[in-house]
Structure to design on (560 residues):
């Protein structure tokens, strides 16, 4: 066994700890929520590993979480008999290595305490939140199946110590040595209230000592009592679940700090039997574009946690969705490989995608303000949809929102349907322009003729727009057409007089065009008289089948 060792926190961890202690002191109750949440995750992991190795239970298969306190020693302890941790796991999980997304997190800090507290919440405060109420934390843990236990201890400043120790039962004890003034965490009634408020949905029993009144004081007895409901929230009937319970459960599965924007809870029966409880967050996480980001959906089989795997259960373009899917049919020993090409999983995924798209449609229709919030956070991700999910292309397309010349505002709030409703009677296509920035799109000389004729054009400047337009070529029978590509054919929007005038101009300009062609030589494909412009003298146009100027710029920037 190894002797006591002192190790330093990674610089970012140190910074995070300081920030957390100073900005979250008014949210002390979340400490209990975070530690209970970790204990619950540890039990889930043990149950899963024990499916293939029952010996891990060590004759103790009654999983629970215990909350206890010692008034004299001023300690609050959260214990679990879950999976536990090995020495390296302790070092890696709580201490030296910052979570993915830490850098982005620091970049997003504003210095405004209220705002930053919110950001910390989104980032996921987790274990470190202990230091909000404790000036010393001792963690003693033994991994299921191992003999050696580990003791980790820290004051939450620069470093922590780690040493070998003994522990009879498997799992983890987290002992909080409370800061001065934190006596409410030594109060039985207060603790039980907090547990019920934040952790009622936890599937495991959260056990505390029963207390009785003696001489005007509450004194713990030797008898245990289960404080929470300890039933899987998603398996309960909708009518029995309050809004607050839904919200707390969301915070548990998502590690988010704020309430969700919307959710859908359903029990599917028939060929595939499963329950899904899926949430749309109110805010995008920092790691939305990070490949190593947290997974999104927890898969359960008959209430047993199996794994967290976003890809098999939710497509990439819905990667922001959080929640639980509990199948009644999949085998308990389902592996990642089985999930990969299981038709049952495919059916569950398809059903769940429909639920989420339905939820978004409902939001768009009935709560437009919430939908605007959703779009601001996740619109760019949803735009990946038509390219990824062919079967639901039309549904997704109707959920898309764009900026357009109708408002000339950068806010993306024009649906394709609204665009079509405003189309001129003779107009056949949905016109758009893509550019690097909104300003470039809005001020493009290509727009001149459209503005003059009062024809609306969608202004696209998100990177993902080019990818979107590659797969979304029409909507409700109307072609999506770039106004910056090929010959501009306004079709029936041009009258005979226009065409006659254009012909005359072309005749007159013939010599000029020849001279420009000679001057520009190889650097252009073609020089033409245009009717696109009303004010500007000239513009660059991509060929009908060429990359658009914007896409060419994106590829060049990416080194291709
Ligand atoms: P998160 O729970 O979001 O991963 P935390 O800071 O809460 O972040 O915990 C960090 C990690 O420490 C967990 O992912 C887990 O691996 C480990 N951990 C924390 N508490 C426990 C526990 N009670 N039992 C086993 N592992 C734990
Ligand atoms: Mg946690």
């Amino acid at each position: 066994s190894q002797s006591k060792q002192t190790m330093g926190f990674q610089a970012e961890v140190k910074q995070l700890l300081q920030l957390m202690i100073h900005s979250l002191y008014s949210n002390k109750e979340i400490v209990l929520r975070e530690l209970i949440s970790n204990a619950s995750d540890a039990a889930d992991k043990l149950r899963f590993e024990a499916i293939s190795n029952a010996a891990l239970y060590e004759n103790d298969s009654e999983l629970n979480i215990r909350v206890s306190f010692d008034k004299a020693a001023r300690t609050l302890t959260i214990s679990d008999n879950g999976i536990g941790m090995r020495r390296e796991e302790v070092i890696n999980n709580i201490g030296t290595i910052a979570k993915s997304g830490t850098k982005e997190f620091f970049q997003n800090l504003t210095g405004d305490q209220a705002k930053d507290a919110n950001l910390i919440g989104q980032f996921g405060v987790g274990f470190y939140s202990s230091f909000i109420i404790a000036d010393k934390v001792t963690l003693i843990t033994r991994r299921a199946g191992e003999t050696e236990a580990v003791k980790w201890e820290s004051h939450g400043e620069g470093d922590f110590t780690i040493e070998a120790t003994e522990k009879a039962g498997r799992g983890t004890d987290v002992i909080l040595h409370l800061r001065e003034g934190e006596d409410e965490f030594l109060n039985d009634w207060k603790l039980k209230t907090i547990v019920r408020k934040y952790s009622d949905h936890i599937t495991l029993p959260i056990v505390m000592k029963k207390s009785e009144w003696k001489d005007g004081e509450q004194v713990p007895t030797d008898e245990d009592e289960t404080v929470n409901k300890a039933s899987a929230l998603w398996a309960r009937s909708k009518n029995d679940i309050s809004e607050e319970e839904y919200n707390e459960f969301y915070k548990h599965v998502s590690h988010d700090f704020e309430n969700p924007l919307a959710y859908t809870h359903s029990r599917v029966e028939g060929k595939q039997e499963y329950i899904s409880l899926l949430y749309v967050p109110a805010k995008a996480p920092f790691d939305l574009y990070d490949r190593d980001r947290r997974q999104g959906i927890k898969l359960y089989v008959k209430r047993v946690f199996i794994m967290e795997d976003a890809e098999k259960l939710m497509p990439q373009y819905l990667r922001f969705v959080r929640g639980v899917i509990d199948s009644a049919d999949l085998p308990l020993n389902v592996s990642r490989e089985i999930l990969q090409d299981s038709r049952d999983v495919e059916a569950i995924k398809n059903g769940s995608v429909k639920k989420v798209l339905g939820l978004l449609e409902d939001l768009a229709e009935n709560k437009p303000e919430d939908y605007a919030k959703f779009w601001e956070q996740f619109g760019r991700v949803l735009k990946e949809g038509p390219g990824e999910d062919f079967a639901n292309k039309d549904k997704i397309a109707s959920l898309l929102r764009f900026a357009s010349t109708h408002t000339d505002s950068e806010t993306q709030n024009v649906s394709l349907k609204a665009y079509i409703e405003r189309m001129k009677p003779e107009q056949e296509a949905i016109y758009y322009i893509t550019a690097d920035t909104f300003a470039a799109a809005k001020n493009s000389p290509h727009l001149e003729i459209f503005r003059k004729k009062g024809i609306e054009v969608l202004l696209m400047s998100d990177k993902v727009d080019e990818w979107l337009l590659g797969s979304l070529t029409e909507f409700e029978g109307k072609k999506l057409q770039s106004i910056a590509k090929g010959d501009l054919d306004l079709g029936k929007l041009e009258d005979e007089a226009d065409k006659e005038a254009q012909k005359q101009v072309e005749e007159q300009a013939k010599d000029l065009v020849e001279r420009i062609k000679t001057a520009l030589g190889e650097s252009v494909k073609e020089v033409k008289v245009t009717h696109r412009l009303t004010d500007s003298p000239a513009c660059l146009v991509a060929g009908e089948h060429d990359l658009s100027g914007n896409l060419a710029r994106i590829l060049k920037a990416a080194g291709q």
Residues 34, 38-39, 41-42, 80, 82-85, 93-94, 124, 126-127, 172, 255 surround adenosine-5'-diphosphate (ligand 1) (CB under 6 Å). The chain is about 40% helix and 20% strand. The chain has a mean pLDDT of 87.
